[in-house]
Amino acid sequence: xxxxxxxxxxxxxxxxxxxxxxxxxxxxxxxxxxxxxxxxxxxxxxxxxxxxxxxxxxxxxxxxxxxxxxxxxxxxxxxxxxxxxxxxxxxxxxxxxxxxxxxxxxxxxxxxxxxxxxxxxxxxxxxxxxxxxxxxxxxxxxxxxxxxxxxxxxxxxxxxxxxxxxxxxxxxxxxxxxxxxxxxxxxxxxxxxxxxxxxxxxxxxxxxxxxxxxxxxxxxxxxxxxxxxxxxxxxxxxxxxxxxxxxx
Length: 248
Description:
By secondary structure, the chain is an alpha+beta fold. It is 33% helix and 27% strand. The longest helix has 16 residues, at 204-219.
């Protein structure tokens, strides 16, 4: 069992294994993304939880308010990692520390399985997520996939490309420390087009412009190592030597 270190709003986080709890995770996905079509069914979550994966459910008292789930991944060199597929928190609790607590709980379970890397994807136009993943957690991204999920109809993705950065969160303390040191040196600023900051939904031209800028930096052998809120820019740099190749 993993609990938050300082539970916000009396939040508890536990593994979901009973079908009743897994059904609550499915319902939360539909609530958060505004579509039942993109919600993983409880039958799939049951298989994930029984086959080496981890499904987590956050509750405020007895009310389900957030979730995260993932499974074992294997890169082309045979290295295992935790592949976090989805995580979400109800809108009214997104600034209450629940998302960070869920990630910390995922890290706990990944480390308990002997894993030293967690991998997931996020939409680079979602700048709150960029700040959380890259700046607060200290993850990096070395791969960008245009239209990763094709066209989707849920509230968060409808009518826009499903571009994704592949995030890698290195859990080994030595690697994490080396990345923190590298981040302090700064790097190449990749400005976010103004339309992504000022318009909802953002203009397609600006989404494509961000895609081009990120892919150009990654094609030059750099990794996206931070998101700078003050400059409104991603930050790219070469990783220190000794890190494994990208997982995906």
